[in-house]
Structures are given as structure tokens and as C-alpha cells.
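User: Before I run my own analysis I want an independent prediction to cross-check against. Here's the chain; please return only the C-alpha cells and, at the end, one sentence I can use as a sanity check.
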Amino acid sequence: MNKTNLGIIDWLLSESRSMVTKTYPDFDSFRQAFYTESESWEDPVDRAVVGGFVSNCIAFAFAAGYCSALQSLVPVLPKNAITCFCITEEGGGHPRVIKSQLVPLLNDADQGKTFTLNGKKKYITCAKEADLFLVAASDGIRDDGKNSIRMIKIDSKTPGIKIVPMKDIRLVPEISHGELIFTDVTIFETDLLPGDGYIDYIKPFRTIEDLHISAGILGYLFRNACKYDWDRDIKESILSRIVSVRNLALSSSSAPEVHIVIGDVLKQIKELFKLLEPFWEKVGGEAKQAWDRDKTLMNIADKARTRRLQTAWEFYEKKRTGNA
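Assistant: C-alpha cells:
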């Protein structure tokens, strides 16, 4: 019988005293600490927790969870890279409104197939800090009339990419947000990720992102619980939710049973936030103000989560009645 390895919990409890005294006030110093401390952890969800624990603010914890989620989605991504998921355009993020175009060029005997990418993406997290972009683009219309989406891995320094900073972003202002403009960007066949851009990447990422960002935020909360000597029962509550999130993150993101359990786990995390209010009141100052501002991250995409939860329950209702 396999037993779950909770090494990350042991690490948090063992390192808490020495680690909380270290501060990383800017993104570059946080980034280096995140890479250094998380390098030895195999599972991206554990790296998300570590990244949250070394974070001075929820924005950095969010970035750690976000990048770790992408490593879970695309395991070939390097651990020591900031990667951005570039989906949303003017009309939103659904495949039918993605207008960025991937157009084939004449084949090159040395490079194989080559393409050009043109288009524009919005709301890119860590746009300025990124090493890599994962970009969804259309390579034409399928036989069923739907947009065919491919996912492309692009070095952020590739010629033809322009980053336009987005200002007046209320949440997590400590990390950058931007728009990307792609103008005749050369794409090689080796830059294309295998599979369908929507089914294999965009659709599962929503759940993977929820879990890994939750892991990062919980790691950040445990750091503060240690730093400000919050009650042991609060620390236990944070750790137990880390275990729940971790178990789900290591499960299939498409399984209906996973979505049903996620529904309650995310509810428990929000209830934990309420329990922490008097503790944040004692912390006060800029730390509390930032927490009050950014804790609403957990409410983003609530409607989409509710739809996934409803679909999961419907799956089991049909299965129970023999209609699955």
C-alpha cells in the first residue's frame, strides 16, 4: 500500500524558524529564493508551497503558484523559468474568439516546418518578468467548423514580441501585468506543444491553476503564522488544507470526483480566511492592507468553478441512473 509523502509539511515545520527571518522585498530577490528553495522538490505543488512560504506578499505567492501550475501542465518547462499563459484576447479566452494566427511558411530543409505568429494577448501575469510565453493561436478551422487551437512555447526575447504594460491593475500590483503584441514572430515546429490547444492545455489549466495558487497562498499564510506566532490550531488548519490541496493537485484534473472534492476544499480555504481576520488585525499595517486587497483572488472565476462542480455532480447523477 502506497503511503502519501508529506515531506513538504515536515519541511515547513522544520524550516519555519530560520526561514521567516529572511525577506525578499523585490521580485528578483524573491525569484532567486523561490528557485533555490524549491529546486529539490519534484512535484510542482510542493514547489508552489515553498514559493509561497518564501514570499513577502501574496503577489509573490500567487506568482509561485501560477508558475508551478504551468510546470504541472507542461512538465518539460524548466523549473528556473517564469512562464506566462497567454490565452485571453479582446473577446475573451474561449477558443472561438482566439484570433491570433499561426500561418505556415515554406518548409526549410534545415529547420523543418516554420510558421509566423501574429496577434495580441491581454492580462498576461508577470509579462515583464517572463522567460517563456505559452501562447494559444489558431492554425485554421477544423472540419467541424470550430477554431483549431495550438499551444506554442516562445522565448520572451524572440524578435517581434512587444510588451505593453497594463496599468491600474488593482490586485497583486507587486507583479507586472501586460498585453503582448506578436508581429510576424517566427515559430519553428519544435516550438509547438503536442495535442489540442484547448482540450490539452486551456481547459485543464483552470483547475490546475486553482490548486497550485491555493498551495502558494497557503504557504504564504503558514509563513505569517510562524512569523507572528499565531495559535497552533491555526497552523494546523493551514497545514491540513495544504495536504488537501496537494492530494488533489497530484490527481487527474479532469476527473469529476476531483472537481467535487475541490468544491469543498476551496470552501474550507475561504472559511480559513475568515478565521484569520482577528490575527491579521493584530498584524496591521501594510501587510494587512495587502492581504485585504488580494485575498479576493480566490473569488476570481467562481462562476466557472460552480459550472465545473455542477457538471461533475451531473456525471454521477447520470451514472447512478444508468444514463452515463
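Sanity check: The first strand starts at residue 83 and ends at 86.
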